[in-house]
Amino acid sequence: MVLPAHLKNNLMPSEIKFIAENELITILPRYSMKKIELIGTTIPALRGMRRERVPIWVALILKSQDKCNIVPPEWMNVAYLKEKYEDELKTPYRFSDLPSNWIEVSKILLTKAADDLADPSHQLRSIIQDLREIRLVKSRRGLKELNESNIELLGLSLLEINELRPFVLTVMNKLRQLHDTVKPEDDSTNANNYEDSDEDEDMDN
Amino acid sequence: MSFDWDAEEDDFFAGPSVRSRQAVDEDFPIPDDFADPVPGFGDPIGLIPQDTAEETNFQQLIRHWMNERHSPDILPGQEVLLGNLLDHIRKQTDDVQLLRADPGSSEDEHFRIMLVHTEIERVKFVIRSYIRTRLHKIEKYARHINSDPNMYERLSKAEFEHAKRYARLEETHYTSSVLQSLPIDQQGLDDNIAFMPPMIPAPSKTRAVFVHARQDCPRVKLLDGSMMEMKKDQISLVPYNVIEHLLARGEVELV
């Protein structure tokens, strides 16, 4: 009741976008403004045509009023993303090192600031879609490795994790229940061990 | 908001155990006395050493918000952090109101006010979501909180009072609607029956969570007895109890 059901076990894509909007991005102001001290950050003094770094949400407000141009991040162009796509093809078991919020940021920029991007937006959209698909295939393939104890992931973005979460958590919890039932004698000793080790850790602190 | 955070902080810090916990939680490499709340203790941003200043109050709140959202257990409440942010919000809101009331302010100033106002709403959104997430868990585990003294120190005074009241309401409701018409030996709400799940739901600490290492972490023991070492920025999916202590020290965050 306090927390609506759809928020209980997972994040909403809009919440992930909200988090991504706090990241800094470079803008080229067309407007002068004095410095503003905010709660979470400070917007530096803006002067026409001098690059400054501001949170994305500020950049979007400025952009919507035609007060700035957004300088897209260096990975946000077709050539770089193509290269990453090739990397993804070459290494079937690893993810290429894209920024941890590349999907969110690229989506925001494509919808709100398409005219500031270096390449035509349809090309960017298509390469981003390709990248997303190949990474999705890989992460699904990686699910074969899923077991009751742990799995390591490298280079997945928050949004991609969020997509996997409902399925992966359910499966892993079921696997663990099965595992615990198969070895009831181990289970009881294990449980005790963990309680103990937790307490030890607390005391170390 | 009807909470009076300032008053609450004072009560909250009456117990010494909370203070040390707070210092660990914030993972500030600074002397303990920093965590001591001074009456009228304001915005600490200027006091934080340069290397930790990178994570602002708001960023910390977002991290704790995410942790709370993903963790199956109730995490220690971030009273000081919330207090600071709420003070800051109050100050900014007053400023905005003052500037808005000024008829002489130019269009540029209105634009600046709008930016400040937008940010206030963004911070409020996170604070609300954080508190609601905690409330959700507190209501879910109200009866467990009442029976486990370890839970007390993780809650603020208001949260703890709420848990107590909620548990009492729940029990009264069960009794008046069903239990009173049952035989006496079937009326218990905390019987331990062999091979049955416990009657008081407790957080399941073995639930899997996604963790992101904020720094290189010491090795942890996994369920099957093997060891796992997490390098900075590694993301793993592990049972919550494996990384519980790393989370308390702020070495990992949940994603």
- Supply the number of structural domains of chain B: 2
Beta-strand content bin of chain B:
5-15%
As a whole number of angstroms, the C-alpha radius of gyration of chain B is: 22 Å
H/E topology pattern of chain B = HHHHHHHEEEEHE
Q: Spell out the helices and strands of chain A N to C.
A: HHEEEEHEHHHEHH
Residues in helices of chain B, as a percent range: 40-55%
GO biological process, one term (chain A): double-strand break repair via break-induced replication
Domain GINS subunit (chain A): 75-178
Biased composition (Acidic residues) (chain A): 195-205
Pfam families (chain A): PSF2_N, Sld5
List keywords for this structure.
heterodimer, A: 205 residues, mainly alpha, three-stranded antiparallel beta sheet, two-stranded antiparallel ribbon, 8 helices, disordered C terminus, B: 255 residues, Methane Monooxygenase Hydroxylase, Chain G, domain 1, Ribosomal Protein L9, domain 1, 2 domains, 5 strands, 7% strand
What does this structure look like?
Chain A has 205 residues and is mainly alpha-helical. Chain A has helices at residues 5-8, 13-20, 56-64, 78-90, 102-112, 121-142, 158-182, 184-204, and strands at 24-29, 36-37, 42-43, 52-55, 68-71, 151-153. Mean pLDDT of chain A is 83; it is low at 186-205. Chain A has a 3-stranded antiparallel sheet. Chain B has 255 residues and is mostly helical. Chain B folds into 2 domains: 5-160, Methane Monooxygenase Hydroxylase, Chain G, domain 1, CATH 1.20.58; 204-255, Ribosomal Protein L9, domain 1 (3-Layer(aba) Sandwich). Chain B is built from 8 helices and 5 strands; from the N terminus they run αααααααββββαβ. In chain B, strand 2 and strand 3 (227-228) form a beta hairpin. In chain B, helix 1 (5-12) packs antiparallel against helix 4 (79-101), helix 3 crosses helix 4 and helix 3 runs parallel beside helix 5 (107-140). Chain B is flat, with a radius of gyration of 22 Å. At the A-B interface, helix 2, helix 3, strand 6, helix 7 and helix 8 of A face helix 3, helix 4, helix 5, strand 4 and helix 8 of B. Chain B: One of its GO terms (cellular component) is GINS complex. Chain B: Residues 94-174 form the GINS subunit domain.
